[in-house]
Amino acid sequence: MPEDEGKYRINVVAQKTGISAATLRAWERRYGIPVPRRTESSYRVYSDDDVALIERVRSLCGDGMSPSEAAKVVLSEASQPIEHAHLGDPYEQVREQIVNAVERFDPDGIEMSVNRALTLGSASVICEQVIVPVMFRIGQLWHSGDITIAQEHIATQLLETTARKLIGLLQPPPGSRRVLLGCFAEDEHALPLYGIALHLAEASFRTLMLGARTPPAAIRQSVQHLKPACVGLSVTLAPPPHRARELVDAYADACGDTPWVVGGQGSEALASLVQERGGLVVPHDDVRQTIRSIETLIARRRRGAKTH
Ligand code: B12
Q1: What residue spans define the domains of the chain?
Q2: Three-class DSSP category at 126
Q3: HSE (CB half, 13 Å, CA atoms) of 36?
Q4: CATH architecture assignment, domain 90-168
Q5: I want to staple 243 with a disulfide (CB 3.0 to 4.6 A). Which of 93, 116, 209, 239 is the partner?
Q6: Cα–Cα dist 168/130, whole Å
């Protein structure tokens, strides 16, 4: 018998894949995915390939397919020769590896898995398929109490460093239009900034990341010294109304006549304040529109500057 055939009992597989034992038995019964070997006493034992099949079905379901559609896809992939013979989505696998290492409190393991991710495609694919979703997942795990704040911080630091490097590889050369990016002063959600920085780099903007909790003074000084084409502020947690007004005023003053936009899940609550002060709130679910709005603001400012 090949070495890895029949390694894991059903409860271990349920734990590894996050699919309950009852569902695993149902998938086997309904779709034949997978049909594990049985021990003499009739216990199911799953191989690594069986686990990969389950993870592939789970990943397709996560993308919105029903289990029966996913099972069809996986069965047809399994019947393809060579290039489709490897089962499991490599991005999903590496995401799992990173998250498992975070759960084990294993920084070296996180680093090794992140390095593995770097071999899986272009900078933008790695960022989009691995780094951003893993950071999101880590945040969820912290919110649900499944990892500690120390685990979250270690992972986030490693992932942010990688995200910065990847975005750096994508962006245009020095001298190109620059967008300064920072979070509102009391906001720790820096991940949305990496998400938008990636899209901006793809649209040929250089980005400068000021990160979480960026105070208005940091925007003011950066605007004065670096003369960016635009300032982008992210708000995930909308501040309470009195504080919101104070901050919006301070950011508006800090930006001066440099165009500024505010995005993120908490930005809509600030829309009227921001507009009153000449800023723009961009829709948080439409990246194309966001990039177009930024292009328009910059072009308008250039035209305005020429006529003065
Ligand atoms: C990751 C995360 C964290 C991480 C942040 C790590 C990091 N480095 O970013 C950690 C664990 C630190 C964290 C902490 C907290 N969090 Co939190 N967190 C999340 C989580 C899971 C994901 C958010 C995220 O990164 N989304 C991914 C990005 C890519 O998506 P996005 O925001 O939509 O951004 C896109 C667009 O909006 C746009 N965009 C965003 N910003 C900008 C800016 C510009 C200029 C432009 C142009 C576009 C743009 O582009 C992005 C890419 O497409 C959410 C859950 C959720 N479902 O959102 C909770 C969530 C946001 N957190 C929440 C809370 C409450 C907190 C805490 C207050 C908890 C606490 N008790 O301490 C603290 C925050 C402390 C603080 N002062 O900020 C709540 C917020 C509820 C609310 N709206 O009031 C959420 C929704 C969880 C929940 N369901 O309760 N969190």
Answers
A1: 8-84, 90-168, 174-307
A2: helix
A3: 28
A4: Orthogonal Bundle (1.10)
A5: 239
A6: 17
CATH no. for 8-84 = 1.10.1660.10
Of all helices (H) and strands (E), which one includes residue 208? strand 206-211
> Cα separation of 25 and 22, whole Å?
5
Cβ–ligand 1 distance for 152 under 6 Å, the answer: yes
Q: Is the CB of 158 under 6 A from ligand 1?
A: no
What was the pLDDT predicted at 148?
Answer: 95
Q: Is the CB of 295 under 6 A from ligand 1?
A: no
b/e per residue, 236-252, with b = 16+ CB within 10 A?
bebbeeeebeebbebbb
pLDDT at site 12: 93
Shortest-distance atom of ligand 1 to CA 152? 11
Q: Provide the CATH number for the domain formed by 174-307 in this structure.
A: 3.40.50.280
Residue type, 110: I
